[in-house]
């Protein structure tokens, strides 16, 4: 599935975040049938937040192909979560879903507990849930919006990481989803960009904090990716041209990001921690 053509996205918008993948046109490409697994995550127990759709879904499927048992947490997208489970189950591993509002520390701890109770442990945590609300000016960003964006995008990472730490051991991995806007900024995603910058610093600090325990912490910073977050946060007209201004001239499909998460979760990256990996349609980051 290399040499992806530049997709044409019909104008579309969904009113509720984080959006439903099943209602998108065209549907995001979440699986690469040419992917060749090598049992790199055989027997690992994994929790992926925001795992029902987008990057989370693609990563969950790739992890399952590599032999991992996976719990996906989701907010309210029941249909998307069920489809992701059915795709994972085709690989023969265990797949479970857990509904949680990760802005709530108790529910975040519940997602981790459910994973540990179901699989007998936790080896990989992927913090991936996010929201974004474009505004033309900081004057338009309400206190409510700031709170929701920070609680979803960074507080949840703190909560799930705190809950996971007692269960992680040497060789375990935490992978955080940051964004290209953490480095280049975004004039209309000011609060979102701030949370993604916080995730970068959180990743580096946690890597230092857990180095002696042998737990690696890294981040992925995507550029434009065709996910439900796009059609639920931008206008229909903006969605129609999404990613066309990137150096590669197109948005990524979710499956194109999954391999970097696999790499960071297994021993191929055993000498890598505290780093941010850019999968961003050709954007050069200083």
Walkthrough of the structure:
- The protein has 286 residues and is an alpha/beta fold.
- Helix 1 runs parallel beside helix 2 and helix 1 packs across helix 9.
- It has a 7-stranded parallel β-sheet, with helices on both faces.
- 37% of the residues lie in helices and 13% in strands.
- It has a single domain, classed as NAD(P)-binding Rossmann-like Domain (Rossmann fold, 3-Layer(aba) Sandwich), CATH 3.40.50.
- The mean pLDDT is 95.
- The radius of gyration is 17 Å and the shape is globular.
- The longest helix has 22 residues.
Q: Estimate the global geometry from the Cα principal axes.
A: globular
Fraction of residues in β-strands = 5-15%
Helix percentage: 25-40%
Number of domain units: 1
For this structure, the CATH topology is Rossmann fold
Report the end-to-end length measured between terminal Cα atoms.
29 Å
Radius of gyration: 17 Å
Q: Average pLDDT, to the nearest integer?
A: 95
- Can you identify the CATH class? Alpha Beta
CATH architecture level-2 label: 3-Layer(aba) Sandwich
SSE string: EHEHEHEHEHHEHHHE
Reported for the largest beta sheet, the result is:
7 strands, parallel
Q: Give start-end ranges of low-pLDDT stretches.
A: none
Summed up, what is this model?
The protein has 286 residues and is α/β, with parallel strands linked by helices.
Any key phrases for this structure?
286 residues, Rossmann fold, seven-stranded parallel beta sheet, 9 helices, 13% strand
Q: How is the secondary structure organized here?
A:
Blueprint: E1 45-49, H1 54-65, E2 69-74, H2 78-89, E3 95-99, H3 105-119, E4 124-127, H4 143-164, E5 173-177, H5 181-184, H6 190-210, E6 216-222, H7 228-233, H8 236-240, H9 258-265, E7 276-279
Parallel strand pairs: 1-2, 1-4, 2-3, 4-5, 5-6, 6-7
């Amino acid at each position: 599935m290399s040499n992806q053509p530049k997709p044409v996205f019909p104008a579309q918008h969904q009113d509720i975040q984080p959006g439903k993948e099943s209602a998108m046109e065209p549907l995001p490409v979440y699986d690469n049938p040419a992917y060749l697994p090598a049992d790199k995550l055989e027997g690992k127990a994994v929790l992926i937040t925001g795992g029902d759709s987008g990057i989370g879904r693609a990563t969950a499927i790739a992890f399952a192909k590599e032999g991992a048992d996976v719990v996906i947490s989701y907010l309210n997208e029941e249909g998307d979560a069920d489809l992701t489970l059915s795709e994972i189950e085709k690989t023969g591993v265990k797949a479970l879903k857990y509904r949680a509002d990760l802005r709530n520390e108790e529910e975040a701890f519940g997602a981790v507990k459910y994973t540990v109770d179901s699989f007998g442990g936790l080896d990989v945590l992927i913090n991936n849930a996010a929201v974004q609300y474009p505004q033309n000016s900081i004057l338009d960003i309400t206190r409510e919006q700031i709170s929701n964006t920070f609680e979803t995008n960074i507080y949840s990472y703190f909560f799930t990481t705190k809950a996971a730490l007692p269960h992680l051991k040497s060789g375990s991995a935490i992978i955080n989803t940051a964004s290209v806007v953490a480095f280049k900024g975004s004039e209309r995603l000011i609060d979102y960009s701030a949370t993604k910058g916080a995730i970068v610093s959180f990743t580096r600090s946690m890597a230092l904090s857990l180095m002696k325990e042998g737990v690696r912490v890294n981040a992925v910073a995507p550029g434009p990716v065709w996910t439900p977050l796009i059609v639920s946060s931008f206008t229909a007209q903006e969605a129609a041209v999404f990613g066309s201004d990137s150096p590669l001239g197109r948005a990524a499909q979710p499956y194109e990001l999954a391999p970097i998460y696999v790499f960071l979760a297994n021993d191929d990256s055993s000498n890598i921690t505290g780093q941010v990996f850019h999968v961003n349609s050709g954007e050069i980051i200083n």
